[in-house]
Design goal:
3 domains; single chain; 9 helices; three-stranded mixed beta sheet
Length: 259
C-alpha cells in the first residue's frame, strides 16, 4: 500500500518579529484514505517563549513532554481549526486557490493567504535544524542586527557556534535570554533617541511632522458630486484623490462648514 507524506514546521513570532520553530509536523495519507499526523515539539525552543505570544499548540498537552504526539485517522485540533472541511460548498474552490488537486492539510496551510485569528501559529515549509557559524563580525551589521541574527537562529532551534563556542540545547535558554535582553534594550534606546531628536527638531522648527497633502478643491467637488449621485462610494472617491478615507471625510467636513 502506497503512502503519501508531507512535512512542515509550526512557527510563531514575538513582538520583535523573531520566528520560533515550535514543532515539526508530519502528515501520512494511505491509499485506503486512512491517515496519520505526527507532531514533534522542540521543547528547547518552546522554553524560550512566553505567554504573550505563545499559549501552546491546540489539542496537545505539552506538559507531558512527549517526543511525539500521534493522531491516527483524527485531525489534530491544530489542523481542524484551520483547514476547510469537505462539506463546505467552496471546498474545491479553496483547493484551486492554492493550486492543490487534493487536500494536503500541511501544504494548504503553507500556501493559503487566509488568516486564522484563533492564535498566532502558522506553518512554513519544513526546516531542518542545522549548525550556524558566526566566526566573523559582518561589517554590514551593527551590534543590534548581529545579536538579532544569533537569537533568531537560536529561536529556530539551530545550534550556533560563535568563534568556536557552541550554543545548543544545553545552554540555549541562558544565552538567548541574555542576548534578547540586550537586543530589547537596544531597541528601546533607539526609540528614545528618535524621540529626543524629534523633540529637539521641534524646538528648532526643523521637525514639522508629515507634510500635508494638497487637494485640488475642484477635483474634490467633482468626486463628491459623483458620490452623492451614487456613481462611486466614498472609499473609491478617496482612492481617486490619492488620500485616505479619514482625510476624505475631514475635507468633506471642512466644505460643509464653508457652505
Amino acid at each position: 500500500m502506497e503512502t503519501y507524506s508531507s512535512k512542515a514546521t509550526i512557527c510563531v513570532k514575538d513582538k520583535f518579529n523573531i520566528e520560533y520553530h515550535i514543532s515539526e509536523i508530519f502528515y501520512y495519507l494511505n491509499e485506503d484514505e486512512t491517515f496519520k499526523y505526527v507532531l514533534k515539539p522542540n521543547y528547547s525552543v518552546i522554553s524560550l517563549t512566553n505567554a504573550d505570544f505563545f499559549q501552546g499548540i491546540p489539542g496537545l498537552n505539552l506538559d507531558l513532554k512527549k517526543e511525539e504526539y500521534i493522531r491516527e485517522n483524527i485531525n489534530p485540533v491544530f489542523i481542524s481549526e484551520r483547514v476547510p472541511q469537505k462539506n463546505r460548498e467552496d471546498y474545491f474552490e479553496l483547493l484551486d486557490e492554492v493550486g492543490l488537486s487534493f487536500m494536503d492539510p500541511l501544504l494548504y496551510l503553507i500556501k493559503t493567504k487566509k488568516q486564522y485569528f484563533g492564535d498566532n501559529l502558522y506553518l512554513i515549509p519544513y526546516k531542518e535544524i542545522e549548525e550556524v557559524n558566526f566566526n566573523n563580525f559582518n561589517k554590514k551589521d551593527n551590534t543590534s542586527s548581529f545579536i538579532k541574527k544569533i537569537i533568531s537562529n537560536l529561536a529556530m532551534g539551530n545550534d550556533v557556534s560563535i568563534n568556536g563556542e557552541l550554543i545548543n540545547d544545553t545552554n540555549r535558554k541562558l544565552v538567548f535570554n541574555v542576548l534578547l535582553s540586550i537586543y530589547s534594550r537596544s531597541i528601546d534606546f533607539r526609540k528614545e533617541k528618535q524621540i529626543v531628536g524629534i523633540n529637539k527638531g521641534k524646538l528648532n522648527n526643523v521637525y514639522k511632522g508629515r507634510k500635508p497633502i494638497n487637494i485640488d478643491r475642484l477635483r474634490f467637488m467633482e468626486i463628491l458630486d459623483d458620490i452623492e449621485k451614487g456613481k462611486i462610494n466614498a472609499k473609491e472617491g478617496a482612492k481617486k484623490l490619492n488620500i485616505s478615507i479619514d482625510k476624505f471625510y475631514r475635507e468633506k467636513k471642512k466644505i460643509a462648514k464653508i457652505k
